[in-house]
Amino acid sequence: MKSVKKSDFAELVKYITNAQQKAERVGGVTVTNCQSDRPDAAIIEVINTQVQNTRAESDKTYHLIVSFRADEPDETTLKAIEARICEGLGYGDHQRVSAVHHDTDNLHIHIAINKIHPTRYSIHTPYNDHKTLGELCERLELDYGLERDNHQAQKRGAENRAADMERHAGVES
């Protein structure tokens, strides 16, 4: 059986900041809540912070990708959205590196977040983060005049399982 490998903050930051020989791949790179604004120095600082937490057995790195439609939004708005999403998930004080990518049809931001708090050294894992992210995105779309997207599933877990069983059995409720 294959085991799931935990994220490596250094590898993630190297990936999101690497232009991969494409002229337009990486736009702005932002380092937040670190002593340096250089990604290479931030990697060392984050790893040193992560080492301070010896109790957490789960992944200490959180990776988010926030995607936008064509021609949305400008650099200032991107930074504000990134900050609000991190704050909304409880990562406002956490160390992170963000990189804007232009290598697909849709502009997107990769956010590498250290789940270990930089002064308390406790791990933060947001409860029900998919739901929280959906609600945050809906609010941000309204606040910034972005095109609306569907972020919430129409049915919840138990409803989906019941529908799957009915479909499989050929029964309609």
Structural features, described:
With 173 residues, the chain is of the alpha+beta class. It has a single domain (9-169), classed as BirA Bifunctional Protein, domain 2 (2-Layer Sandwich), CATH 3.30.930. The protein is 38% helix and 16% strand. The chain is built from 5 helices and 4 strands; from the N terminus they run αβαβαββαα. It has helices at residues 9-17, 39-52, 75-88, 129-144, 157-169; strands at residues 26-32, 61-67, 96-101, 108-114. Strands 1-3-4-2 form a 4-stranded antiparallel beta sheet, sandwiched between helices. Strand 3 (96-101) and strand 4 (108-114) form a beta hairpin. Helix 1 (9-17) runs antiparallel to helix 2 (39-52) and helix 3 runs antiparallel to helix 4. The mean pLDDT is 87.
Structure summary:
With 173 residues, the protein is an alpha+beta fold. Helix content is 38%, strand content 16%.
Report, as a whole number of angstroms, the end-to-end distance: 39 Å
Proportion of β residues? 15-25%
CATH topology: BirA Bifunctional Protein, domain 2
CATH architecture assignment = 2-Layer Sandwich
Top-tier CATH class: Alpha Beta
Helicity range = 25-40%
Properties at a glance:
173 residues; four-stranded antiparallel beta sheet; BirA Bifunctional Protein, domain 2; single chain
List the helices and strands and how they pair.
Blueprint (H helix, E strand, L loop, with lengths): L8 H9 L8 E7 L6 H14 L8 E7 L7 H14 L7 E6 L6 E7 L14 H16 L12 H13 L4
Antiparallel strand pairs: 1-3, 2-4, 3-4
Helix pairs in contact: 1-2, 3-4
